[in-house]
Write a structure and sequence with these properties.
The complex is a heterotrimer of chains A (171), B (423) and C (168).
Chain A (H helix, E strand, L loop, with lengths): L1 H21 L3 H21 L3 H26 L15 H21 L17 H11 L1 H23 L8
Helix pairs in contact in A: 1-2, 2-3
Chain B lengths: L1 H35 L19 H12 L10 H17 L9 E4 L2 E4 L8 H22 L3 H32 L4 H7 L3 E2 L3 E2 L2 H4 L1 H14 L11 H4 L9 H26 L10 H6 L1 H29 L11 H21 L7 H31 L7 H29 L1
Antiparallel strand pairs in B: 1-2, 3-4
Helix pairs in contact in B: 1-10, 1-14, 2-10, 3-4, 3-10, 4-5, 5-8, 5-15, 8-10, 10-14, 12-13
Chain C lengths: L16 H4 L2 H20 L25 E2 L14 H5 L5 E7 L7 E9 L8 H5 L5 E2 L16 E2 L1 H5 L8
The chains are: A mainly alpha (171), B mainly alpha (423), C alpha+beta (168).
């Protein structure tokens, strides 16, 4: 059952990725990316990492992509002008799929059976909130805090670049 | 396989509950608004001359919208335009998965927890699904290719992003107090008593958190005073302006489904959910006979009173309309008399000597009933607030979200953490 | 977005601390609305709403309703087709075709007398202008409804035998 779900979510993830690349409209592209994120969350959930799955939805699909869409939509309307294309985008995955499949299988063959396919759910408790929190706020506390400071600096930097130096709130 | 059937039964119950609540809420909204504004509200649609005080109107609306022509803008993005209403509805329905509507029900010796999915990260699931709610609104606004819908979509995005953070902060305080991310744990924790006499509801231990949460819930459901994405006076009808027929009905129903979620969340997280105040589950079961008798007597007295009121109206308004509507007070009196008779029949079966199996069922039903009561009250609060407060201006909304609520949320979290560390 | 620095039409009211807290004032507002709600539920009879088709408002005798043409004692129209009403009409909704009256003491009579009720603004200038009190608006009919536009074009026969209900 879990193996079936794993393959199901995996193929949805692939579909989302491929569709995201071949879309002409940036908004539709972004939506396929959201679809891929949700499928990835499904894979995490199948592997027992519910916390990771929910965080994937909350952070990537729910927050980051919404902002992306916000920006893309400001730039582009829903109806696009005719555009010259080499070939119909639906053909791209047909051409790209066989080499990709061969590559993935090759990689799996070289690395042993653990790389391809579903190897069963990990031990219970793996990826739980407690475990993630212990690692994040224990062993990797320094890195975690450093990353937050970097993000804060980036935020202030974006503010400075965006508003121009003279208009900053503290000037 | 039993577990699948159980899950299906629970999903079916939740779905029926939400859809039933949607109809009732539309009625409550119209009637409540009318009475608040000194009007009578809808009272014309009738089935065989029975109007049910306007309850037939939502049903009539469904039929009207089903048969209406679906007018669509020519230059829309076809796929996304069709997808958006379904997205809104799906997201609106999926939050219910983690909301417990009762403690447990024992059927044939199996304890069935009354929640669809008891996730260990239920609180995060609520936040995640709430954050996905933006997509439907934004896509509807963008795909219709209309500047008003687009403005509505943009407003919805900005508003939801701003208020999600506050919602998360408010919920963090609650998670700290009850020490769990599991919604059922939080509800179970609220059955305890604080200092031995106050129910340890979320609103008691997190008063500021509750105020922040209820505000963000109102903002996330796009209800007044935060209904800027619709803003009739400024952007016509906002994101669902270009939708008609059943697609519009989906948006309309999703708004009410969101209200039901909001009410369910408020009552589950801050008002004890299914917990009966001062009566935890064992007390409910051991006093089942007394409580059941009391409930039946209460039902009997209330139904007789209501039937009497109907009868008085029947005698006062005899021959007022000269058509089928004149039968209504009589029918109402008859209905309530039947309910009263049922309660009386129950009383003759010696409810004070109810057995242990009956006591368990009674306890489960009482908890579900209390949850539904809280749900309806907070859903009514949404309506009540809508017809009381005017809409925020956009800059006021952003100021409130970022400059008032965010600092308050952080302060609430810090104080909670300090108190939890000291105690 | 900030509106600071922009000219403000009305002087902003200075808010007290209690008002800045929002919630006490919101509760006060909720109290006002719930009082109305409860009063209206408990006293449904006091509701100012009228159940329109069953209950109708009584208008004053001077109410200007749909027009009618007065008759002489022999049943012919009192109108002498002088065109005063159609001249006075600001909406230009009266159309009269005059014809010679067989009685030499009466100069003319209206061969046709049409009123377009959709154009009429019910100002009453036609009845003011009429020298022989032939057109009146005292029927009190205000429910004027039909399912096609041509029905609103009423002729002499209709105006002479004006029915009391609103159907055309």
């Amino acid at each position: 059952m879990e193996g079936l779900l794993f393959w199901f979510c995996g193929s949805l993830l692939l579909l989302g990725g491929v569709m995201m690349v071949v879309q002409r409209s940036a908004v539709v592209s972004a939506l396929w990316l959201v679809f891929a994120f949700l499928s990835a969350a499904g894979i995490f959930a199948v592997l027992g990492g519910t916390f990771l799955a929910v965080m994937q939805v909350l952070v990537y699909a729910g927050a980051i992509m919404v902002l992306f869409l916000f920006v893309i939509m400001m730039l582009q309307g829903p109806v696009m002008d005719g555009e010259r294309r080499l070939m119909h985008p639906a053909l791209w995955p047909l051409i790209a799929a066989p080499p990709a499949a061969v590559l993935i299988m090759l990689a799996g063959f070289l690395r042993g059976d653990r790389m391809v396919g579903f190897a069963g759910a990990p031990a219970p408790g793996f990826g739980s909130v407690v475990q993630v929190a212990t690692l994040l706020l224990g062993r990797y506390l320094l890195a975690f805090e450093l990353i937050s400071i970097i993000l804060l600096v980036a935020l202030i930097g974006a503010l400075a670049v965006g508003r121009g130096e003279r208009k900053l709130p503290w000037k | 396989m039993t577990i699948v059937y159980e899950a299906l039964a629970k999903i079916g119950f939740m779905f029926a509950l939400i859809m039933g609540m949607v109809v009732v809420l539309i009625w409550m909204e119209r009637k409540g608004a009318a009475y608040i504004q000194d009007r009578t509200g809808p009272n014309r649609a009738a089935i065989l001359g029975v109007r049910l005080a306007g309850l037939v109107h939502p049903v009539a609306d469904v039929f009207k919208l089903l048969f209406k022509e679906d007018v669509t803008p020519t230059n829309r993005h076809r796929a996304l335009y069709n997808l958006a209403p379904w997205l809104v509805m799906t997201v609106a329905l999926s939050t219910y998965a983690v909301i417990p509507f009762g403690d447990f029900l024992t059927v044939a010796g199996r304890r069935i927890p009354l929640v669809v999915a008891d996730l260990d990260v239920g609180m995060l699931y609520i936040l995640a699904v709430a954050s996905l709610g933006t997509y439907g609104v934004v896509l509807a606004g963008w795909a219709a290719n209309n500047k008003f819908t687009f403005l509505g979509g943009l407003r919805a995005t900005a508003q939801m992003i701003s208020y999600e953070i506050n919602m998360g902060l408010a919920l963090l305080g609650l998670m700290l107090v009850f020490g769990s991310l599991r919604v059922t744990d939080i509800t179970a924790g609220q059955g305890a008593l604080l200092w031995g006499f106050i129910p340890m509801w979320g609103v008691v231990v997190q008063p500021l958190g509750f105020l922040l949460f209820i505000t963000t819930v109102y903002a996330e459901t796009n209800r007044n005073p935060f209904d800027l994405p619709e803003g009739e006076s400024e952007i016509v009808a906002g994101y669902h302006l270009e939708y008609s027929s059943m697609k519009f009905a989906l948006f309309f129903m999703a708004e009410y489904a969101h209200m039901v979620i909001g009410a369910a969340l408020i009552s589950t997280l801050y008002f004890g959910g299914y917990q009966v105040p001062w009566l935890p589950r064992p007390a409910l079961e051991s006093h089942a006979g007394l409580l059941l008798t009391g409930t039946l007597i209460f039902t009997l007295v209330m139904s007789l009173l209501i039937a009497f009121a109907f009868l008085r109206r029947a005698s006062r308004e005899r021959g007022k309309f000269q058509d089928a509507r004149d039968r209504e007070p009589g029918l109402g009196a008859g209905l309530w008399l039947i309910i009263g008779l049922a309660a009386a029949a129950g009383l003759t079966r010696q409810p004070w000597a109810v057995g242990s199996a009956g006591a368990e069922v009674f306890a489960s039903l009482a908890q579900v009933g209390v949850f539904l009561f809280k749900l309806v009250f907070f859903a009514w609060l949404f309506i009540w607030v809508r017809w009381t407060l005017p809409r925020f201006r956009y800059d006021q909304l952003m100021n409130l979200g970022w400059k008032v609520m965010l600092p308050l949320g952080v302060a609430n979290l810090l104080v909670t953490a300090l108190v939890m560390a000291v105690v | 977005m900030s509106f600071e620095g922009l000219p403000i039409g009305t002087a902003a009211k200075k808010r007290s601390f209690r008002e800045k807290l929002y919630f006490p004032e919101i509760l006060r507002g909720l109290g006002v609305t719930i009082r109305h709600l409860l009063h209206n539920i408990l006293h449904t009879a006091d509701m100012p709403t009228m159940q329109y088709p069953e209950e109708k408002r009584v208008y004053s005798d001077r109410f200007r309703g749909r027009h009618r043409l007065m008759k002489r004692e022999d049943g012919s129209p009192r109108c002498v087709a002088c065109q005063m009403c159609s001249t006075a009409c600001p909406a230009d909704c009266i159309d009269i075709v005059a014809a010679e009256h067989p009685d030499p003491s009466i100069e003319k009579y209206p061969a046709t007398f049409d009123i377009d009720l959709l154009r009429c603004v019910y100002c009453g200038l036609c009845e003011e202008a009429c020298p022989c009190d032939a057109i009146r608006m005292d029927t009190g009919i205000y429910e004027i409804a039909a399912d096609k536009r041509s029905s609103f074009l009423v002729d002499k026969e209709f105006l002479l035998n004006n029915t009391t209900d609103g159907t055309l």
